[in-house]
Amino acid sequence: MKLAQMRNRAKVGLALVVIGIVLGWRSCSRHVRAARLLHRFADTQSQPAGIDETSFMLDAPTGPTRAKIYSPHGSSGLPGIVIVPGVHHLGVDEPRLQRFARAVAASGITVMTPEIKELTDYQIQASSIGTIGAAADELAKRVDKHQVGVMGMSFAGGLSLLAAANDDTKKSIGFVVAVGAHDDIRHVARFFAKNEAVEPNGNVVHMKAHPYGIMVLAYEHVDDFFAKDDVPVAHDAMRDWLWEDKGPARELEKKMSLAGRAKFDLLAEPPPVDPKSGVFPEHPLSNEIMSGLEMYGPALDAVSPHGHLASIHVPVYLVHGAGDDVIPSTETEWLAQDVPKDELREALISPALQHVELQGEPTLSQKWDIVHFMARVLGEAENEK
Questions:
Q1: Residue 288 resides in a domain
Q2: How much of the chain exceeds pLDDT 90, in percent?
Q3: Cβ–Cβ contacts within 10 Å for residue 346, how many?
């Protein structure tokens, strides 16, 4: 999961200006809490007082996995929410995830962050869905509720929606928040390959995809991208690159064949594109990516919410960054069509977000949209039974 800090002025403005706006509203308290939550998260030095943090091993279908609980000190009977981290090797130890979990806990909610082993290894697998369901079951027991919320970040957002639609995993899920989520990994892979995203109405949006995305895709299918003799070294080099250990990755690259080194270079640093030109040529490996979609088809369908959400019977909240260059915001447009209409509470696409990161200095209207969205999520948590 990646969440960047806002400028100091924006951080202060978010808390103070919005609080002033909502003072006369019936839902004043909830909006103020949402503003404070976002203010705490945006402040990288924030250390909310009175938060107990506990680590434990969660009994997941794939075996024991690490998890953390963040809870307000001395409180009981609070609502709960599972925050599922996206693709990142640090898992539950990722600093921005920890800061967000503390900020949510400080707003009066018990938070669990389960480590999804597959996502820490940059693998998007159906087995992760069971871990999400197990985390919801465990947190519901701990807070003595029948159900708790689940908030999934990035690819974990799509997996969280699938968990809420699956009869084997949905029992303890009371609502879902999907942040920068995917609807169909086929769409996302096409975006990586062609630098274009397709809206539900068929309109094509041209934009440059972040090279991180195609590296993740190749890492998961390294056997298909590299010659047999290059596979072990290519795997480790890509892992180091994704971990942002670029020096070691380049040293490993030297051990590959010339063809392997050329391919690694294209994955790591594809030819530059001038976004001002409005021309976004296909990735040099586009043909390999697109031909692989048929080969990976069933596995991709199993981790794609598209066509699998009819059995969701809990409230769903969707939020996406308008300029997301990892998972394009068109995916939330697709999700808004796939989620049953009676359950879709909100689908917000905001210029104030970049993938799952706060960015720049939002306008007052954009600040309000984000605060209002989070206030509705807090309200949903408070309605847990």
A1: no
A2: 68
A3: 16
pLDDT of 22 strictly over 50: no
Where residue 84 falls among pLDDT bands split at 50, 70, 90? Answer: very high
So what's the pLDDT on residue 27?
57
Detail the DSSP E strand segments found in the chain.
51-60, 63-72, 80-84, 110-114, 148-153, 173-179, 196-198, 204-206, 316-321, 344-350, 353-354, 357-358
Residue 85's nearest CA partner among 77, 74, 93 is 93
Number of domains observed in the structure of the chain: 1
Instruction: Beginning with the edge strand found earlier in the chain, give each strand of the sheet holding 80-84 in spatial order.
Output: 51-60, 63-72, 110-114, 80-84, 148-153, 173-179, 316-321, 344-350
Residue 248 lies in a domain: no
Domain holding 177, by residue range, is: 8-185+302-382
d(CA 170, CA 182): 19
User: Sorting pLDDT into bands at 50, 70 and 90, what band is 125?
Assistant: very high
pLDDT at 368 over 50: yes
CATH number for 124: 3.40.50.1820
Whether 292 maps to a domain, the answer reads no
Q: What share of the chain is helix, strand, coil (3-state, %, to 5)?
A: 50, 15, 35
Cα distance between residue 179 and residue 285, in whole Å: 28
| 197 contacts 204 by C-beta, under 8 angstroms | yes
- Structural domain includes residue 281: no
pLDDT at 8: 46
In DSSP terms, which residues pair with 347 in a beta bridge? 318
